[in-house]
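Before the break, one more example. Copy the sequence into your notebook; we will annotate it together after we see the structure.
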Amino acid sequence: MKDMYPRNGKVILHVDMNSFYASVEMSYDESLKGKPLAIAGNVEERRGIIVTCSYEARKFGVKTTMPIWQAKKLCPQLIIQKPNFERYRKASLAIFEVLRQYTEIVEPVSIDEGYMDISECAELGSPLEIAKSIQERIHNTMDLPCSIGIAPNKFLAKTASDMKKPMGITVLRKRDVSRILWPLLVGEMHGIGGKTSEKLLTIGIKTIGDLANAHEIQLKQLLGINGIRLKERANGIDTRVVDPEAIFDHKSIGNSTTLPHDSTNQRELVGVLGKLSGKVAARLKNKRLLGQKIGITIRYKDRRTITRSKMVSNPFFEKEDILNWATDLFLKNWNGEAIRLLGVTAYDVIEKEAAFKQLDIFSFQKDAEKEPLYDAMEHLQNKYGENIIKKGLALKERSIGTDTSFSKDFFEQSRSKK
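Here is what the structure looks like once it is written out:
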């Protein structure tokens, strides 16, 4: 069996749950199986947004972030339900318990996907046998479908898991990259969004193969160090390890400034926080990162320094959010004495692609609807300067929680063991 494992390389699995929220609801209520189902915010309102949908719904053209009215037009028989995030979290915990029964080297990257390093698991069978066993156990015990990619690194494993859905298992070797990936449009490559794809088109890069063979200097001028990283990915190169502790990393991005003069002027100090928040937001966005904890630093005239921080409910990267939380922390902790230095920091930073936002039925819709506005504002500010347009303050919204639970026996048993 060891002959089926590379002597010097790795065997990485990427386990990706299929249409996760909708699948959990179908597992909870069998009458929903085989029917077009969508999970959406503001179900009662036609302007609500689709969070996810079943494969039966996708056949009609229903997609994530689509307005309910449009989805219903495409599929009049569409069943729409509110999300139950507590139910989904319990399902996620149970799934990762199953994965860790094969190896402790498991890295969750979101509520419904994760990486496994099975390089030392030859006694459990071949990589394909292990993948089949995982898929069958999750399906048989929880009635949830998943797709699994098998590859020598994380990028190729993630790419492979996307190739066959639902309930697919795909092996993608490095030697297959030129044949399978290179003919695809560059926008289909994991890690490349619409804007990056458009930028690459300006230098004649249309396919993944074009990217794999592109000039490094030209890529670096266009995309910075990320351009080199994307070229490596296009060639099937990815040296990242599967890190079980990655989800707990305490990385941070912050900015601080010494004031031109010691100040007790609240308006002036909040203005400084605004500038610092803007810099932190820009760095987060450029690195495609999200913060989960906000912190401030206050250094007084006599050089006494305090730092204060707080966890927030949802990962963030917008200046408005950073400034609101930083200002709140500042006003609660400033003693009124003259200040020499201020700092704002985003802690517990995670990659945007890996973030699982603890959305409620209102925040998802609000975020989805704001994306076009953010893009338009960014375009105007880049062209005419950041002061050309600014966002106003939003009215504070009430939050709605969920108190329902998943009654399926498997999850009830899992909870009782803890």
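Residues 363-384 form the longest helix (22 residues). The chain has 15 helices and 13 strands. Try to locate both features in your own notes.
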